Amino acid sequence: MSEISASGTFKPEIFQPVSPLDAGVAAVSGRLLQADDEGDESASDDTSPVAVAKKAKTNFNKLQKRLRREVGQAIADFNMIEEGDKIMACLSGGKDSYTMLDILRSLQRDAPVNFELFAVNLDQKQPGFPEHVIPEYLKKEGVPFHIIEEDTYSVVKSIIPEGKTTCSLCSRLRRGNLYTYAEEIGANKIALGHHRDDIMETLFLNMFYAGKLKSMPPKLLSDNGKHVVIRPLAYCREKDIIRFSQYKQFPIIPCNLCGSQENLQRNAIKAMLQEWDRKFPGRLETIFSAVQNVVPSHLADTQLFDFKSLTQMTEQERAQAGMKLDLVNLF
């Protein structure tokens, strides 16, 4: 059972596996989950439908348990969800937001923390957008929702020259509409589906193209102070989300309707990180760990650390501070 602190905040837990899955569905989906990327020494040569279904169910339970644990840990580490929160879960139709909503709903059922979930999708009137897909899915799942209809696509196209990347303006317009609606319904938290890979990609994008050591925080207060944005998937790997969404068979809407995706700088960064992950196992984990272990005194930002005031300490000051000179630290 989940725990709740005296202040009414989430505490992480290791959740129990999901209920037994239908053997027929598992047999069909088994090929997606037979090779668990965490390594499974119990692999069998038995390829019968029953064995494949059993293997798929076991691997899915492990995968879902890991995602729930990682989301629970992120919620606890950043105090993302508290008693009585009304959370607006932004659903784009991609694998990430579907997974986020699914995991948050499972936590909502099991945890003693009372919070409300409300799904929202922004229909930006992109040509060819299958506007029926998300409402049908949410109705089937019994999730309360609202579709915001706002033709930001035409606005973007009228401003951005043909062939130029539209993502920045599109994102700002989308964010503005979502913030406005969150305020209208009294949602005090806005949940987005960005995951660990997104955070690392953004870090390198800012380093390479913007000259900033900056990423995408798991929890953010908007500039006007009215909205708290949370990213519950902050600790989750994209490859786990891909496998989870494949098994759950979410009705994915491709992110290529606007035609501006192919030239994104993010794609180059993503390819770089994926190559590192293949060639150097564990490197991405180390990079993400670095994002959580920042030492301002060992960088060069004078706004974060007062380098100008650094002066040599006297013998008396060193003695008072209990410091011992260690020559190794000089190199």
CATH domain topology of the domain at 80-292 = Rossmann fold
The appropriate CATH architecture of the domain at 80-292 is 3-Layer(aba) Sandwich
Which geometry do the CA atoms define? globular
The helix content, as a percent range, equals 40-55%
Compute the number of strand runs: 8
Mean pLDDT: 84
The sequence of SSEs as H and E is EEHHEHEHEHHEHEEHHHH
Number of helices: 11
Q: Which structural class should the secondary elements be placed in?
A: alpha/beta
What is the rounded Rg?
23 Å
CATH-assigned homologous superfamily of the domain at 80-292: HUPs
Strand order of the largest sheet: 5-4-3-6-8-7
Taking the sheet with the most strands, its summary is:
6 strands, mixed
CATH first level of the domain at 80-292 = Alpha Beta
Strand content: 5-15%
- The parts where pLDDT drops under 50 for at least 5 residues are 1-7, 13-35
- In whole angstroms, the N-to-C terminal distance is 50 Å
Explain the overall architecture.
This protein is α/β, with parallel strands linked by helices and 331 residues long. It has a domain at 80-292: HUPs (Rossmann fold), CATH 3.40.50. 45% of the residues lie in helices and 9% in strands. It is built from eleven helices and eight strands. It has helices spanning 23-33, 49-78, 95-110, 133-141, 152-159, 167-185, 196-210, 238-248, 265-279, 283-291, 315-320, and strands spanning 3-4, 10-11, 86-90, 116-123, 145-149, 189-191, 219-221, 228-230. It has a six-stranded mixed beta sheet, with helices on both faces. A hairpin with a 6-residue loop joins strand 7 and strand 8 (228-230). Helix 3 packs across helix 8 (238-248).
